[in-house]
Amino acid sequence: MNPTIIPGGSSTLDSTASRAPLQSPNSRPFPAIAAVLLGAMISTLTSRITSLGLADIRGALGVGFDEGAWINTAFTASQMFIGPIAVWAAFVLGTRRVLLTGAVIFMVAETLLPLSTNFACFIFIQALAGLASGVFVPITVGFIVRSLPPTLIPFGIAAYAMNLEMSLNISATLEGWYSEHLSWHWLFWQNAALTIPFILCLIMSVPNEAIRQTPARSDYAGMLLGASGFACLFVALDQGERLFWLQSLFITGMLYLGTVLLAAFVLRELVTEAPGIALSYLLKPNVALLVMLVGLIRFTVLNTSFIPSIFLASVHGLRPLEVGDTLRWVAVPQILFAPCVAFMLLHLDARRVIAIGFATVALAFGLGTQLTPDWAEGNFIPSQLLQALGQTMALTSIIYFFAKHVTAEHALTFGAVVQTTRLFSGQLGTTSIAVTQRVMEQIHSNLLGLHVNLFSSETLERLAAQSSLFGTTLNGNTAEVPAGAIALLDRAVRVQATTLSLADNYRLAAACALGGIALTLLLRRAPTP
């Protein structure tokens, strides 16, 4: 769903849906909650673990860095494209049919991927897997809001939020374990295995709906324009850092094409008599703010979740399995955090929980700004635990409060808004950490380099100490400095520059968290059901 405002307008799809009430409470709520957890986990885990295992996959396929960079892009861009179309398909064909079809296609694709030795075929199947898994989150989250009893809705939403932290932080452990004990094939086969319980939960919890007649004036062109526009911009963001942004004709073209497609979508939705979705929904009190808050928390999650991995790998040379030992401390407590947050939401104003969540996240990022090259795995645990708790509180509360603004008329747009916002803002987060680290690392490296010269007594003392490690005594003669001593000094500068740039990323994320508190203060009380 791509936001455009139509004053007083309503979509063909939503106006048809509004004639039916929200579904009656699900008689099997716990399989429904498990389906949300598994669907969201499969979607996030697949992308994250593929990124971590990219070197192994490239080696198995015999492709270089540039070709391999498209492996994850093909998956996530396909997810971005299918989101709004999936919501329409679920309305016409039924939630159960679309989810089961997507799950079966995804399971087959993930089973075949490790067996594909041709790179073009591999990319095609990867994109197909992205299209199939792209239906999981928007439809399951929307189904939870429509069908669970009110007292269980926060637990269903907490399951979705819990998945985000668990999937991001357990991926390094899984990738490392597969690489050392099994093979890269299990980066995909584990996803196929997870699809089996997902299918069982869907069969148990999602009722079989009759196929509805397609609205006579469905806005197919509008949905395709919006989905294609966001997909083009997504690809540009994902590949921009590798291709040097506007120096690349491809990136320039994708940014231009994405902008034109979205502009055409906006124009069409403004002038057509039967727009695809009632985007006037965004004019309702709180809704635009809540969309911004979903994007903000997702941005900070994706921005900061990579920092411990980058630091421990580049500064201390740890392998993924060793990095995973630290990140598990964030993933495992989610099993306790998420239900506690859901229980809080039954007794507290969601706006307070959102503010507390952002404040906790800001505190965690504040601890992260104290990052030094001496930090080891254990130093990250306090900030990571606070971050995990705060992000789970904020994301669960935002979506729960958002759900209070969902009526039968707009139930179809809710999941699409969440999906589009989570994917696009998440990509902004991963792009921002890459850009911020590159730019700030260059700045810090240049500034540090100003103090590293042969006229500095500190530099000479350090070179003398490091030369002694190679059995060389300088005696004031800098021409005799071993190459190894110079390499050690160069590495010390690079480590310090990397550390300072990652601390800057924590500062950026802290500013975003404080911005989240400010936006939360603008939220009004939720409408009375």
From TrEMBL:
A UniProt-annotated Pfam family: MFS_1
GO CC, alphabetical: membrane
Subcellular location, principal: membrane
Domain Major facilitator superfamily (MFS) profile intervals: 32-529
Taxonomy, superkingdom: Bacteria
Membrane topology summary: Multi-pass membrane protein
Membrane-spanning ranges: 29-49, 69-91, 98-116, 122-145, 152-174, 186-206, 218-237, 243-267, 287-307, 327-346, 353-372, 384-403
One GO MF term: transmembrane transporter activity
Alphabetized UniProt keyword annotations: Membrane, Transmembrane, Transmembrane helix, Transport
Localization terms from the record: Membrane
InterPro entries per the UniProt record, alphabetical: MFS (IPR011701), MFS_dom (IPR020846), MFS_trans_sf (IPR036259)
Disordered: annotated segments: 1-24
Protein name as catalogued: MFS transporter
Source organism per UniProt: Paraburkholderia phytofirmans OLGA172
